[in-house]
Amino acid sequence: MILNFEFKAKANNIAEAEAKLQTLNPRFVGEDHQIDTYFEVEKGRLKLREGNIENALIFYERENTANAKSSNILLYKHAPDASLKTILTTTLGVKIVVEKRRRIYFLENVKFHFDTVEGLGTFIEVEAIDETGDIGKEKLQVQCDKYAAFFNIHETDYVAHSYSDLLNATMNNE
Q1: Residue 127 domain boundaries
Q2: Which strand (E) or helix (H) includes residue 123?
Q3: How many domains does the chain have?
């Protein structure tokens, strides 16, 4: 199981935030066009990510709190395969589909996403990741706090819910 500490924040100018990150010389992974299909499950969230960079089946549990929070993640990376989506759709049912453009960077174990989400707007996500158990939750939280300050994230900028929850709420209010 992977432990990560993360935050998501509304970003009115992601180009400016991305330019600020580039002053730290991060490793640019690329721009991913991602389609995340969320499935009906009893606990946590299960999504199939289909992208031109990242393809994974991801189960995670996380509290819906607005600031940085920890997540427990089970991740299965796979080659694109339509049959996996068909099996999951048939057996579990689709909850919602989220489509986004994501620019991805890394600084050591910290992953940065600059997201444009269809129907929702623009966001910054920062994930401090511990894949081996060597870093620990406390250091992950310190890293998130550091980058929240770096990007000048205010308390009101934080987003508590997943894109799937936000999109679902938006669709239900229409």
Answers
A1: 2-172
A2: strand 121-130
A3: 1
